[in-house]
Amino acid sequence: MMNIENKVAYITGGTKGIGFGIAKSLLAAGLKVAISGRNLADVEKAKAELGSENVLALASDVRHFTDEENAVKEIVAKFGKLDIVIANAGLGKFAPIDQLSLEDWNAMIDTNLTGVFHTLKASVEQLKANKGYYFSIASLAGTNFFANGAGYNASKFGVVGFTQAAMLDLRAYDVKTTTIMPGSVTSHFNEHQPNDADGWKIQPEDLGQMIVDLLKLNSNVLPSKIEVRPTRTK
């Protein structure tokens, strides 16, 4: 089992939902964590809720490569290195293809897919130097298409393909790469407000614990793509 204490992790979209749950789990496991979001006030609020001095709050819009470059620079300046990157930022807009707007299409592709590329591109030299680990948070929508989901499906199918190809490129540097494809998760996704009726769903901390467990695996073991579902439906 690998020792992961004092490793440094960066989570995009870390202010709530899956990203926030992952941050909680990593902090509990002894890691130092940077979280980012578009609005610095939201990130600072999330940092306060996490209640740890081992959290760095960053304003970064993953649609802009320079934002992610600057985020990585700030992380290295604060913690001295970057070992683990979790590309989690994402959004969903759902409509029949004849009603899907150009704005919503571009927002999903630019955030969910191009943003994942920007995050890895900005951090890849740190990951190579530290034999690190890169995660993308995709979705079961990255392999299962559905009505009204053309734009979201396209972005998540792309994330799965991108991450799997990146895994083949980076394994030569001893960099691990995994894409996680959750089903229903209790989160704020698509303007949802978490409530008691969400108890049947995967909880954000469950995904956080999964990442902790993956980080502790022997270095010669790489689960490159993981589908995860709630045990039961509602």
Short structural description:
With 234 residues, the protein is α/β, with parallel strands linked by helices. Helices cover 42% and strands 15% of the residues. The mean pLDDT is 94.
Q: Note the quaternary state here.
A: single chain
Structural class: alpha/beta
Please name the CATH architecture: 3-Layer(aba) Sandwich
CATH topology: Rossmann fold
Number of strands: 7
Low-confidence stretches: none
What is the CATH C-level name?
Alpha Beta
Q: What is the residue-averaged pLDDT?
A: 94
- How far apart are the termini? 35 Å
CATH superfamily: NAD(P)-binding Rossmann-like Domain
Q: Strand order of the main beta sheet, please? A: 3-2-1-4-5-6-7
Proportion in helices: 40-55%
Main sheet specs: 7 strands, parallel
Shape: globular
Beta-strand fraction estimate? 15-25%
